[in-house]
Amino acid sequence: MQVPRPLHLLTSIVEALQAAVARRRERLALQQQQFGMVRAEVEALNRWQEEVECLDVGGQRFHARSAVLSGHADHYLSALVSGNFAAAREADDSLFIDRDPQHFALILQHLREGTTSVPHGAAARGQLRREAQYYGLSESMGLSGTRTCLFAVGESAAIYDSNTRQWVEIEKPQPCRRLGDFDDFRPWGGRLVRILFNRASIVSRIPSEFFVGVFNAMSWRWDVLDVIPSPDPQHLASVGSRLFCQVSPSFLEYQGNGHWERLPGMIVDREEGFSGLCALGDSLVVVGGYHPSPQITLASVEQFSLSERKWVQLPDMLCARIHPCVTVWQGKLIVAGGQDSLNEDMYSVECFDPISGVWQPMPSLPHTDYVVQLVVF
């Protein structure tokens, strides 16, 4: 057996030590990097916690960031955390509010998301309305006490009388002058919006352009807000300050200045332009439509959660429908009209309670001339 010469042995030892030192340095650098990341996260968490207010509402604790509590126009909670007024704090630095805490989570939800979830039952809705009035948020939450009415508008117009549970004919208002023929208008941030198209494109035979139009109450016309980047937009919907457009075969969210972001695809394959769309709480809901293969009229209902950014299936409607009209009224999803699997016009109306998860029939419309759009006003 050949014995390594002393110089070779010494060289091998030095190289092994250098490699060990290099590995140790790499591990140390990685540990320092990880420590820096953890430290930054802890510092960010500490800063975030410093901005959090603890509210003791009738003995129940709620936590919210100061920016959330002061983000809307002037109201009781924004004044409470502003520092402009003397507010007595408890020993743990919390702020005590001598009110019933039952519906306070819905108050915070409105401040965080800009939406209003109305509880089931007249008594609970009355309690929420009183709390909203106390906190100075009645107008913001749409609970000022003004009665909301459900209209069916088409060639004729009718209003739903919730006392007699009957539809009553009313005189149809004159239509607004506009660029296009889309009758599907929606509320968005205190304004009315609709899809408009450029009639000149028909005459010049160039590809059609579609726009988001905003109603101008001064001129009684529709002003153009922005271009919709799709040759075939279907419906608009809004959730708080967020605006969405259904395009075939998906959805876009408006980001401002001509920018739109595409949402994930739905669970059920639906033919373009045959389903109904509206906002329910902090989500979008798509009802009915047409399955292309096999050719089936759908009773399917899907809900897209904006916070989780995913679609979930809700219970099917009582009737399968294409081109249904849909809106939310008194916390319930209302679906009316459309066509059945034989393309026959439908007169029926049904409602979905998101709390119980049950569909129930409502009185049918006298005839289908009413059903172009359901409007809550």
Plain-language structure description:
Pfam families: BTB_2, Kelch_1. Keywords: Kelch repeat, Repeat. Residues 55-120 form the BTB domain. This is BTB domain-containing protein. The chain is 22% helix and 34% strand. Among the domains are: 50-134, Potassium Channel Kv1.1, Chain A; 150-176 and 264-376, Kelch-type beta propeller (Neuraminidase, 6 Propeller). With 377 residues, it is an alpha+beta fold. It has helices at 6-50, 66-69, 76-82, 104-113, 122-134, 200-204, and strands at 52-57, 60-65, 95-97, 150-153, 157-161, 166-170, 185-188, 191-197, 210-216, 221-228, 233-239, 242-247, 250-256, 259-262, 276-280, 283-287, 290-291, 296-297, 301-305, 310-314, 325-329, 332-336, 349-353, 358-362, 373-376. The strands form 7 sheets. A 4-stranded antiparallel β-sheet has the order 6-5-4-25, with no helix packed on it.
The share of residues in helices is 10-25%
Question: If you average the pLDDT, what whole number results?
Answer: 79
Write down the overall geometry: extended
- Which CATH-level-2 architecture of the domain at 150-176 and 264-376? 6 Propeller
In the sheet with the most strands, the strands line up as: 6-5-4-25
Number of strands: 25
Estimated structural class: alpha+beta
User: How many angstroms separate the termini?
Assistant: 99 Å
InterPro entries: BACURD1-3 (IPR045068), BTB/POZ_dom (IPR000210), Kelch-typ_b-propeller (IPR015915), Kelch_1 (IPR006652), SKP1/BTB/POZ_sf (IPR011333), T1-type_BTB (IPR003131)
Pfam family, one: BTB_2
Keywords: Kelch repeat, Repeat
Protein name: BTB domain-containing protein
